[in-house]
Please model this.
Amino acid sequence: MLTTVAAFDRIGEENAFAVLARATALAASGRDIINLGIGQPDFRTPEHIVDAAVKALRDGAHGYTPSTGILPLREAVARDLLHRYQVEVDPDLVMIMPGGKMTMYAAIRLFGEPGAEILYPDPGFPIYRSMIEHTGATAVPVPIREADGFAFSAAETLARITPRTRLLIINSPANPTGGVTPPQEIDALVAGLAAHPQVALLSDEIYDHFLFDGATHRTLLAYPDIRDRLILLNGWSKTYAMTGWRLGYSVWPRPLFDQVRKLAVNAWSCVNAPTQYAGIAALEGPQDAVAAMVAEFDARRRLVVEALNALPGVSCTTPKGAFYAFPNITGTGWTSAKALASALLEEAGVALIGGPDFGVHGEGYLRLSYAASRDSIATAMERIGAFLARRAAA
Ligand code: PLP
Model:
């Protein structure tokens, strides 16, 4: 009998991957499945980015790079942040990571241990809680409420801080709700944090390009008072349709940077070299593909929200960011959102995710990712409507 460490009894999952596997298996067996489950753009990486990676390979970028990432890429990240947010970031504090998730992993590993408390949004990206529990720390959910337009509440967040709180995770624009937290709420949070200097902050801003209806995103980098305890998570996966490349970045406070660098040396050495060159091309090249993708998501968002609100028993707050809708299904008579999600996949051929996969406060909701064509979305909505009507009649 092999004995593994208890930490692995406490590691969770991202159910979107399980739903993707089931949807793929059903499709392989001949079923017509529309996938609104997985959180990745259904677009190709823009061609000039692919070309940059191919060129790097041809030019011989085959070896290790510095663990922190190649300097031109770290400088490109700093320039991008200056250009988009007018914030100065020292390239020496930019760490190139193998995807956005690895920043989460590093930040939570740095602060999580038995006795520590880490606050995270619920509903929220499932890996936050999973990783917190893996480290033995106590995962403290901060409820994210539909009544607040799925923005986080500074007051509710601050009220949960105790002397044991080490790390606070926030995410806007948010997965799974599409909520965008308004600048004044972020101001209030930062002001309140002055009373809790022991609390570090992980701000997951991976959806910061996906904003609609004039919503604005205030990066946490814009607050000089917390820069010495702020970890910023961002990356290329969503913005440049590069989920499979595994490329992300983070900005760290100076005292933590060397610890993360050492984690990289121990765990992954560096991000693969050609991908880093692709990352430069993405940031420095034309941005029209990003604008076109966001415009298409906006059109789909309107379609999805309108169609969802026309379904009996369903109501959907209009998301202002990311590419998710988070409809409330409590009026349908279904008391388990996961059971409804599973029935929709098996019986109606529509893959989506039950809200509880994002935390206990997700019960009563479904998450739809609108990473599918408008035609597919329209068909999916018809199927969901017909399914609900069939079940209501039964
Ligand atoms: N953060 C949030 C909120 C996400 O939704 C995701 C991916 O779905 C990530 C981070 C991870 O991104 P990556 O694929 O770059 O690891």
